[in-house]
Design goal:
CATH topology: Rossmann fold
Helix content: 40-55%
Number of domains: 1
Order of helices and strands: EHEHEHEHEHEHHHHE
Strand order of the largest sheet: 3-2-1-4-5-6-7
Radius of gyration: 17 Å
Number of strands: 7
Distance between the termini: 41 Å
CATH class: Alpha Beta
Oligomer: single chain
CATH superfamily: NAD(P)-binding Rossmann-like Domain
Bound molecules: NADP nicotinamide-adenine-dinucleotide phosphate
CATH architecture: 3-Layer(aba) Sandwich
Shape: globular
Largest sheet: 7 strands, parallel
Number of helices: 9
Length: 258
């Protein structure tokens, strides 16, 4: 026997929120390469063409769905469309997220709401809709939430974001215990520093890059094409059948160092 079948997702039906670019795109492609059929969502269906093309080029099947996770009705409808099209749901990657840095003395309620409604409230109502479908399907399922280093440590000017991601870690722990009897595992990934549209603004500053690199033991930034998809595949596969309620940092050792 080889270990590969443990990681095989053939026949699994997956939904990846925020799959139009960056980390969500990389995870969607990795799930498809492992054999899953993948529905990807973003606020505009047009923005999903690149991801669907990459999945189809890899021999997979992709479905694009418009969904705004910050709106509970749209969150629920997007999951319902995925369930309808895929014939059920086995895997959810709760990846959609936004960040806007702002000094805490200047944070206004609309900024707080925008970030928390997307990253935390959105993730909850997507997970709830997905878990209802998994319960009705009777075969359990696997959910992965995209947390952050800010789930663990403080980053100045990122307080609404850090609060949303700390909340998401708490939600991961609580849902893992509540939904274990349904056969639904709930885990998380905390990416370190990956250069994406969300974080591009920081990378334009060379001093910032050097400061960060000096704090990452593996001495490089994350590469979403190769560093993150495999961890997601592991967490949703049978290889992780006895793993629930954990968050795996994918951060080059950042959180392990002082
Ligand atoms: N990059 C990093 O270093 C890093 C570090 C830690 C954690 N993370 C987390 O990893 C996840 C992905 O981040 P990323 O860096 O890949 O960001 P990104 O490149 O900006 O991608 C974010 C994705 O979320 C979608 N999205 C945003 N708001 C949405 C909404 N209301 N409804 C549905 N989709 C929405 C975006 O699609 P549209 O704009 O087309 O709707 C896009 O597909 C996020 O949860 C982020 O917090 C990233």
């Amino acid at each position: 026997m080889t270990t590969a079948p443990l990681f095989d997702l053939t026949g699994r039906r997956a939904l990846v929120t925020g799959g139009s670019r960056g980390i969500g795109q990389a995870i969607a492609v990795a799930l498809a390469r492992a054999g899953a059929t993948v529905a990807v969502t973003a606020r505009s269906k047009n923005s999903l063409a690149e991801t669907c093309g990459a999945i189809e080029s890899a021999g997979g099947t992709a479905i694009a769905i418009a969904q705004d996770v910050s709106d509970p009705d749209s969150a629920r409808d997007g999951v319902a469309e995925a369930v309808r099209t895929l014939g059920g749901l086995d895997i959810l990657i709760n990846n959609a997220g936004i960040e806007e840095v702002c000094p805490s003395l200047d944070v206004a309620p609309p900024l707080w709401d925008r970030i928390v409604d997307t990253n935390l409230k959105g993730a909850f109502f997507v997970a709830q809709a997905a878990a209802r479908s998994m319960r009705d399907g009777g075969n359990g399922g696997a959910i992965v939430n995209l947390c952050s280093l800010t789930s663990y440590v403080g980053v100045p000017t990122a307080v609404p974001y850090g609060a949303s991601k700390s909340g998401l870690l708490g939600m991961t722990h609580a849902l893992a215990t509540e939904w274990a009897p349904l056969g639904i595992r709930v885990n998380a990934i905390a990416p370190g520093y990956f250069r994406t549209a969300m974080t591009e603004v920081f990378y334009e500053n060379e001093d910032w890059q050097n400061r960060m690199l000096s704090r990452i033991p593996l001495a490089r930034f994350g590469a979403e094409a190769t560093d993150i998809g495999g961890v997601a595949v592991f967490l949703v596969s049978d290889a992780a059948a006895y793993v629930t309620g954990v968050c795996i940092p994918v951060d080059g050792g950042y959180l392990a160092s002082i």
